[in-house]
Write a structure and sequence with these properties.
With 192 residues, the chain is α+β, with helices and mostly antiparallel strands. It has one domain: Alpha-Beta Complex (tt1808, chain A), CATH 3.90.1570.10. It has three helices and eleven strands. A hairpin with a 5-residue loop joins strand 3 and strand 4. The protein is globular, with a radius of gyration of 16 Å. The N terminus is likely disordered.
C-alpha cells in the first residue's frame, strides 16, 4: 500500500476498493481526501429521517429515485469514494452501475449527521467539497446537531458557491434541477 504523506493519499483508489470489498458487512468504509474513513452505522432516528426524505421525494418528484447508502465516485478526477446516505437520480439511472457510481446522473447527494467525532469534518467540510468537485448540483445536509437543514448548490471549481441553512420546521426549497420544497416540521421528532 501507498503510505500517507503530507501531499499524497494513504493508498490508491484500486487498493481502497479491494479493502472495502473485503470489509465485514458491519463496517462501511469511505475514501475521502486520500484517507480511509469508517462511516458510522446509522441509528434509528437517522434511518427514520432517510425514510422521511425518501417518501417526500417519491411524492414530490415521482420521476426521480432516492437510493439509500449508495457508493459514489467523488472529488476531482473521481479519486474519492463516498457512501452517501442517499442520492437522488432520474429513474433508471443506475442500471448497469457497479458498487461505485459516477456522479454524472446524480441530481442531489444527501447526508444525515451521526453523533460521532468525525461528523464535522466529514459531513460539513469534506463531503461538500467532494460532491461539488464531482459536479453534483445539490448537496442536502440534514444536521441533527443543531437541528438544521443545509442546502449547498451551484458547484464551481470544487466548491458549492451557494449555501442556505434553515431550522427544522422551515419550508426548505431545493433548487433546480431537483426543484422541490420540503416541509421539515417532521424532522423535529427525530432531533434527539
Amino acid at each position: 500500500m501507498t503510505p500517507m504523506t503530507a501531499d499524497g493519499p494513504q493508498m490508491s483508489v484500486e487498493e481502497f476498493e479491494q479493502l472495502e470489498r473485503h470489509a465485514p458487512e458491519t463496517v462501511r468504509l469511505e475514501f475521502v481526501n486520500g484517507r480511509v474513513q469508517v462511516k458510522p452505522v446509522p441509528d434509528g432516528n437517522h434511518s427514520e429521517i432517510c425514510m422521511w426524505l425518501l417518501e417526500q421525494c417519491m411524492q414530490l418528484r415521482p420521476d426521480l429515485r432516492l437510493y439509500p447508502e449508495r457508493g459514489l465516485k467523488t472529488e476531482t478526477y473521481r479519486k474519492g469514494r463516498a457512501r452517501a446516505d442517499g442520492i437522488l437520480v432520474p429513474k433508471g439511472s443506475l442500471k448497469g452501475h457497479g458498487e461505485w457510481s459516477d456522479a454524472d446522473t446524480v441530481l442531489m447527494a444527501v447526508e444525515v449527521t451521526s453523533y460521532d467525532s468525525d461528523t464535522n469534518q466529514r459531513d460539513r467540510v469534506e463531503k461538500p467539497d467532494g460532491y461539488a468537485a464531482a459536479g453534483i448540483p445539490v448537496y442536502l445536509l440534514i444536521d441533527r446537531d443543531d437541528c438544521s437543514v443545509v442546502v449547498f448548490y451551484q458547484p464551481e471549481d470544487g466548491r458549492y458557491r451557494r449555501e442556505e441553512k434553515l431550522p427544522f420546521g422551515a419550508a426548505v426549497k431545493i433548487p433546480d434541477p431537483v426543484n422541490i420544497t420540503l416541509n421539515t416540521e417532521p424532522l423535529k421528532e427525530f432531533a434527539d
